[in-house]
């Protein structure tokens, strides 16, 4: 099985495979490469819809040049004692951040959220985020404000009275419930329009239809989120370290 970096020809084969709707595993078999190699390559270079072979080749060459010029500018060197592969961690974090940016998060915000999720403690101070991401304090502050507004992070003070920003089990649950509440407000507002416009008008019928649709969707999301949270809590309880007796 070949190793090393992908060639331009291999990247063009990946692009053709994506255009034909092939799965990553099938593309990888055609290249005699691991599926993980193809997956990382696509996710870090625009995703399935945005992947371009020539641009991916240029980006790889640019990253290699930048790395040679200044190793200190890497996102986060991993200390040898943590037992992790620094390059594999870095590539995973880039792929994870790409998922969030494809979902609509700004790039800096996505990187910060990934930094919190991939930290064993689940929390970092502003200074730690600045060092880890190699960005300015203002960039961290702006990203934190955005994530707090979305309900994706919370803050608390540690023993040294420093603020730490954290993600925990209920972060995504609370974010989803924020969406549910927004949808219910939409339904309520639509129904007020029914009263204003008159129940027998076409506009009122349209608004009542919207309200009923949103009601059903919001209730389904809420019930699914409640069930998923119970599953998550049970999993975390099962896998949490047990205190010594």
Automatic annotation (TrEMBL):
Residues 103-181 form the HTH arsR-type domain. Coiled coil: none annotated. Residues 63-76 have a biased composition (Basic residues). Residues 61-86 are annotated as: Disordered. It comes from the Bacteria. PANTHER family: TRANSPOSASE (PTHR10948), TRANSPOSASE INSI FOR INSERTION SEQUENCE ELEMENT IS30A-RELATED (PTHR10948:SF23). This is Helix-turn-helix domain-containing protein. It comes from Amycolatopsis silviterrae.
């Amino acid at each position: 099985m070949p190793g090393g970096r992908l060639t331009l020809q291999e990247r063009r084969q990946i692009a053709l495979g994506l255009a034909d709707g092939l799965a990553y595993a099938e593309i990888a078999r055609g290249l005699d490469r691991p599926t993980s190699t193809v997956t990382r390559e696509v996710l870090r270079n625009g995703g399935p819809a945005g992947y371009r072979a020539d641009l991916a080749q240029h980006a790889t060459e640019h990253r290699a040049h930048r790395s040679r010029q200044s190793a200190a500018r890497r996102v986060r060197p991993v200390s040898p004692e943590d037992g992790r592969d620094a390059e594999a961690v870095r590539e995973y974090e880039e792929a994870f951040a790409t998922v969030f940016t494809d979902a609509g998060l700004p790039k800096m915000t996505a990187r910060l959220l990934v930094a919190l999720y991939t930290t064993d403690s689940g929390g970092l101070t502003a200074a730690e985020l600045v060092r880890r991401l190699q960005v300015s304090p203002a960039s961290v502050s702006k990203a934190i404000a955005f994530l707090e507004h979305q309900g994706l992070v919370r803050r608390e003070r540690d023993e040294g009275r420093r603020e730490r920003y954290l993600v925990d089990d209920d972060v995504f649950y609370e974010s989803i419930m924020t969406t549910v509440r927004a949808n219910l407000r939409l339904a309520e507002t639509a129904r007020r329009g029914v009263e204003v416009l008159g129940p027998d008008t076409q506009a009122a019928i349209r608004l009542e239809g919207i309200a009923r649709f949103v009601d059903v969707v919001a209730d389904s999301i809420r019930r699914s989120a409640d069930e998923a949270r119970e599953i998550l809590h049970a999993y975390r309880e099962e896998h949490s370290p047990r205190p010594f007796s």
